Amino acid sequence: MEENQEKRWYIAQTSAGFENSVKTNLERRIKSMGMEEYIFQAFIPEVLELEVKADGKKVEKLKKMFPSYVFVEMIVTDESWFVVRNTPGCTGFLGSSGGGTKPVPLSSEEITPILKKCGKLEEVEFEGKIGDKVLIIEGPFKGQIGVVDRIDNSNQKLVVLVYLFGRNTSVELSFFGIELRR
């Protein structure tokens, strides 16, 4: 099987209510099996919500954004894939059809808002300016060079002009999907 040597986010499915134990078990297995170079972190996306009790008291409570899922940042190799999917309570990967197929990673457009909402990702300002050249490093235009046309720092997105079929085409990308070329 071909190995993906890029650090990406994947979603491990768990039995209902076992998210915390899967996360704990996975963290133990990472250390005991020496997988720190391939499996970097596991987290359960949670948000703080205000709950009103029957007596009218307001109580803050952590609520799981995606019940029965644990997000895992890892480089997929045969060994790292085996460690995660064979963690007690883990039922497999989201995006893996079984039969030995590797899971599909989350795109930066999918994971960035989740990480931001959970406080795991700081706001990032784009270091370039309009007219700068960028290399697209993920998505259908991967490997293409484009020119920055618009910058949206609040949503961490760019509009990049890519030369295709004899004309410039506008492509919206996240800050994490490009590399600045100077």
Sheet with most strands: strand arrangement: 10-9-8-7-11
Helix content: 10-25%
As a whole number of angstroms, the C-alpha radius of gyration is 20 Å
Biggest sheet details:
5 strands, antiparallel
Write down how many β-strands occur, each being a DSSP E stretch of 2 or more residues.
Answer: 11
Low-confidence regions: none
Structural class: alpha+beta
Q: Beta-strand percentage?
A: 35-45%
User: Termini separation (Å)?
Assistant: 36 Å
Please provide the ordered H/E string of secondary-structure elements. Answer: EHEEEEHEHEEEEE
Question: TL;DR of this structure?
Answer:
The chain has helices at about 20-30, 80-85, 110-115, and strands at about 10-15, 40-45, 45-50, 60-65, 70-75, 90-95, 135, 145-150, 155-165, 165-175, 180. The protein is α+β, with helices and mostly antiparallel strands and about 180 residues long.
Would you give an account of this structure?
This protein is an alpha+beta fold and 182 residues long. It contains 3 helices and 11 strands; from the N terminus they run βαββββαβαβββββ. The protein has helices at residues 19-32, 78-85, 108-117, and strands spanning 8-14, 39-43, 46-52, 58-64, 69-74, 90-93, 133-136, 145-152, 157-164, 167-174, 178-181. The strands form 3 sheets. It has a 5-stranded antiparallel sheet, with no helix packed on it. Strands 2-5-1-6 form a 4-stranded antiparallel sheet, with helices on one face. Strands 3-4 form a two-stranded antiparallel ribbon. Strand 3 (46-52) and strand 4 form a beta hairpin. The longest helix is centred in the first third of the chain and has 14 residues, at 19-32. The radius of gyration is 20 Å and the shape is globular. The two termini are 36 Å apart. The mean pLDDT is 86.
